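Lab notebook, bench 4. Still working through the backlog of constructs that have no structural model yet. Next entry is a single chain of 382 residues. Request: give me the structure tokens for it.
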Amino acid sequence: MGQGLSRIPASDLDKFIEDHLCPDTGFRADVRAAIDIVCAFLKERCFQGATHPMRVSKVVKGGSSGKGTALRGRSDADLVVFLNNLTSFEDQLNRRGEVIKEIRKQLYELQRERHFTVRFEVQSSWWPNSRALSFKLSSPQLQQEVEFDVLPAYDVLGHVSIYGRPDPQIYARLIRECNSLGKEGEFSTCFTELQRNFLKQRPTKLKSLIRLVKHWYQLCKEKLGKPLPPQYALELLTVYAWERGSLSTDFNTARGFRTVLELVTKYRQLRIYWTVNYDFQHQEVANYLHRQLRRARPVILDPADPTGNIAASNLEGWRRLAGEAAAWLKCPCFKNRDGSPVCPWDVPTEVDVPEQEDHFLRNLCLIFFFLFLFLFGRATSV
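Model written out:
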């Protein structure tokens, strides 16, 4: 299919996505049924016999299944289990191993019950305090196995509204704890609902473009191996390209695809962030954002978690992916019917950052101003 993508004309990309990348109805139904089974297990049964009672506040579907950008045939699902017993970010860090151990134990016990027709195949974890438990679920009712990652998390957000935004104090606290623990980006699971909402409400065609970019990324992964930048960075780059280059619900797919690949080739210039969930209004958050955005590029901040620079720490992976992107830009899928190259959208490689206020100087000026008013008032009253 890799050769198929590179050789088809630009005008056929939409058909390629529809025919090869969008999940069919049966696949969607299978994944939904599997998720329902696991969610019911986590909510109703998993922690009932735990040594230390644990209460699940909610189970949130994350990953591509939750965002509506799953690729056909890639039957994986991320489920984040929010527990009332975890009362801080540090608590999540220290106790997640204990939670995962309990989930693993209960899965094995469930497996032994003869009347239960679902089979779990738990993947072994080398880390005693790993972030996730990975397992496969199969059932006579399902056409294929579904792979799961279950991640325990601290419920810092509580009820999440699609249109609301978190209290800035939540982010201030996150920043303080990340700094003290030295764990920036470690707690992105706590903000899964915000990550999901960032993509879930997007136009159908943008989700199709994301699928195309993800498919291209998977082809690169098969060819180049690891390490490469995380796939989430490419998803965010695709959203950014569309926001800055089109914003239309019916755009030219080849132009969007070319724009994303050109941004990949310019990875050393990338400085991208969003202010949908956090911004520069709260002083502590603003100071931190300025520090984050001054770091060596590429910088792509998670729109749900300012401590997560999704593009960081893998320059060699970016270099290899950029080389592959440059080679792909010569393919027929980026040529019009007359042989001319598809024109990319005009998209900047960086988002402007507001100037950082000098609050000491500002406060000093305010003190002198009020002192002047006070002295002037006394002088005129004499």
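Notes after review: The mean pLDDT is 89. The radius of gyration is 24 Å. Flag for follow-up if needed.
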